[in-house]
Write a structure and sequence with these properties.
2 strands, 16% strand, 3 helices, alpha+beta
Amino acid sequence: MDVDLTARLGQLRVPVLYASGRYDECTAEAAADFAALTPVAEVVVFEQSAHMPMLEEPGAFADALRRFSARWRAPLK
């Protein structure tokens, strides 16, 4: 079954971090396109990764997640 929920990204009410590896099938450009459709979103591209930056660059991934989390501690209105 194919499901495409792209049109619903604008309904998200939580901050979203799009993580993309430089060599990922979900390219940095695709992640940026999704982020543009999401009300509060950031994109991080991991230069040494393909599809699993949390395993391929664990330190950089953890740092990005910490920075993102620190920016969004306060609830959105």
